[in-house]
Amino acid sequence: MSITAVPAAAKKSGFGVFKAALGGFAGLATGVIGVYATALVDQVAKPGKPIANFEVRAEGLTANFQNHATGQTGWWDFGDGSPLEPFEPEKSVVHTYAKPGNYSAKLTVRNFLMEENDRSVPVDLGAASAAAGGPAINDFTVEPIGGYATAPATFRLRGEVKNVERVIWDLGGDKLEVTDSPGVFEKLIVIERPGTFPIQMIGLAGKTPVRKMANVTVAAPSNGAFSVVLKITDSGSQVERKEIQQTVSLAIPAKDPKPVERVLTAVPGFTIAEAKLGKVASPALKNVKVEVAADKKSAKLTAEWASSGDAAQKATGGSDVMVPVTLIQEKSTPTNLPIAMLASAFTGEGGFVMQNSTNPARSASIELPPSPAGLSNTSRKIQLDIQEMIVGKGVASIGKMEDLKLPLRASITSLSTGQVYIVEASIQKNGSLRVVLTPHLGPKL
What we know:
Layout: H1 8-45, E1 54-59, E2 62-67, E3 73-77, E4 85-86, E5 93-96, E6 102-110, E7 116-124, E8 136-144, E9 153-162, E10 166-170, E11 176-179, E12 183-191, E13 195-205, E14 208-218, E15 226-251, E16 260-265, E17 271-277, E18 285-292, E19 298-305, H2 309-316, E20 320-336, E21 340-345, E22 362-367, E23 375-390, E24 394-401, E25 408-413, E26 420-427, E27 432-439
Antiparallel strand pairs: 1-2, 2-5, 3-4, 3-6, 6-7, 8-9, 9-12, 10-11, 10-13, 13-14, 15-20, 15-21, 15-23, 16-19, 17-20, 18-19, 22-27, 23-24, 25-26, 26-27
């Protein structure tokens, strides 16, 4: 048997080939594993992009939001200023609106990688259905002040209007008013001339109207009859007040949490009178505060993270913490309200309307409207005008006080008889203005 020796160089060369082949195989295996690993991460570890998808079904003022979205966290914004509601996968929500109208509801969803998607859907509640009671005008009454209606006459309108967006008043003749304040109402109106007039109000809920009407008849005054007409002008600063509810969404940090600081600004033209913090259910936050800035144009929300990362998300049930905040905002605007006119005929002791005669005295009481709501630093100017009915000439003014100062004592003279009367006016305990005319029987004033 013979043994042939292999040269050292040949040994080294063969081992290198084997080593290179093994390295190539390892590199190929690593590449293949890398490709499949990347695909595995993309398909398994990385979640799909969130899709905010939902539909709305409304009945009356209640809307049912059918959830067809994909995502792990997010929130619902119902478009009416109410607090945001947290999104829960595969769970639909129901929301009841305060009044009819057209709203825009929005859903925002996120996945664990904080990728975000949102969608807005219009919610038309313009016509409140029977389930919400429908638009209605209840207990509508029109009655003359004092129980009689001689021109000029004051009438009181009372009632309640429900489930409407706008109210149109037809107050006889060419007098039209439009308001957006449904609810219980009480109005005083004056009809200056004799005749029969329709007084009606129309409530509108979308394209659905509701209507109430009453005819009133105003008699013509007798020759020599007196009446008093007041024109009241209220002025002051009109305070518009809004209570705006916000929900601040705070993303839980993955690590190294920093103190939270968010600035909430006032609506342009408004200042923040008060800021209220709602209940924060998440244990991930602590020392949550909200404070109004010195200039009242903003409020600052501050907090600290008690925990972070996966543990905090698990405890919270999502990647976001919802912090409800209510900002009470005000705007003050110098305002002169429209002139309110009130009128009444003078009556004797028996309550009958009196014309110019030798009867000793007559009086008129006018219920003054209350100070207007929503005004501060108010002032009131009253113009008093005593009028006389003269056959063939109509109504004539015989005594006008542009800026009435109370109590009043003055004199007027009848145009038809030349009789001098003492005029006295004062405020009664019930808040009404009482005007008394007494014939002056002594020497001429």
